[in-house]
Amino acid sequence: MNTWVVGQLIRKDWQLNRVLIFASIFAGILALAVVQLATEATAVVGSVWFFIALILVGCMLPIGIVNERKKQNLAFLMSLPISSIQYTTSKLLSSTGLFLIPWLTLVLAALLSIGVRGIFPRGVIPLLLILALMPFVGFCIITAASLMGESEGWGIAANVACNSSYGLAYYFLCRVPAVMSNAASRVVVWNSTILKILGTELALIPLLLGVTYFVQSRKRDFV
Amino acid sequence: MSENYHHDLAIELRGVCKKYRFFSLDHIDLDVPQGQIMGLIGPNGAGKSTTIRILLGLVHQDAGEARVLGHRMPAEQVTAKWDIGFASEDMRLYESMTLGWHMNFIRSIYPTWDAAYAQVLLKRFGLLAEQKIKGLSHGQRVKSTLLLVLARKPKLLVLDEPTTGLDPVARHEILRELTDVMADEGRSVLFSSHNTQDVEQISDQITFIDRGRIIDSMDKETYLDRWRRLRLEVPSGIELPVLPGIIGVRQEGRLAVATANAFEPDLANAYENSGAIVQRIENMTLEEIFVANVAHSREEVEA
Lengths: 223, 303
Description:
The complex is a heterodimer of chains A (223) and B (303). With 223 residues, chain A is mostly helical.
């Protein structure tokens, strides 16, 4: 593996996307601050903003991949001493790494605010994790579509499909008693339903990224 | 380094084929000797860019062998690309970043980056490192791309239509810089264009490509020596003979124009002996040679 050049490409992606990363962290922390105002309205508004921050950064990062092709930067990158699969590796590593920065920061901040301030009961933690993993899975789907589809159309389609499914997923999740029944509890309850949902989400992340890598590695024509 | 490699060749294509739904590259054979400038001329859609993408390993050929600087492509593309500088008309830099950022990015990858030469090029091209790419004109963007390619001092330059869309002044500046770069005799260049004037100005060797086939390839001087246009007066009752080396005759009344791709003084004598009068023997420009060559090739294929 051409690790030095792949590393430079990842560094380049960080430089191109760091404003987005910082902005999403700022927006998410601001949303958590609104939650801390401790009224029902601010709790709802703050929670919605919090998830919007996660969803937006998960949409915007893969748009960068599509734009690299659309704006013809790809020919510039592929003139460098890398193969197409090394480019894919750099994209998967940089995108996932960059997404993880705000995701981990905000999820940890949310867990901390639940644990310390107690605005929400601790029983809501499994629901928070299930909901927070949804934009992560969505990010993987959009990244996969952007890399494999090689067109703006596929990226937009994946974006629309994911964004419209979050509301639906939440709607159905609210109707799963095993998930919702302990949300108001003072202690965290991990039942089998919650663990299955979390497990499925966690399994989808490497699966989607792995399939993307596999499909890209078999392509014969890249630019 | 691959076995059976011809050390005197920077680029070696043998029987390279690539099939798409509506276009095919058909058994491309191409040699670019070390230290030579090869002009690859073809109309739009002739296969120039596909050939170049195969050379860079970005497109995998269906059949045939491609070697660049001795490396088999696409298998050894990573090693090969350390020594290849590639710029194309459809290549774009990151609009939101400055030229200086791009220079730092390329410098971080290539240990061969020559910072002093980069500064010379900045000055010569009238560019500012602090300027964002989105604020540059098309000509400045092309110059920026060339700066990034030239300052890394590649052994092989592959330029795909670099002068397309440039104003005459920018074209002149870029061609002058390329000519200077060629003073380094170890460096080889493949320069593709549909602009024959640009190619004629800087190339040693010229290859014509049309509809996915190489139709002719030789050194520039040989082209200019071998191709002639003979203007003839044909008295009534005289029929022009079919002569080897004449690829086309266009006759209107008593006047005829014969195009020769292997001109010898004997051809004029043969026409005179048949009763025709040779009014003039004209040199042809590279553009005229290209157009006649493409037309002749298409006639042959259709026949």
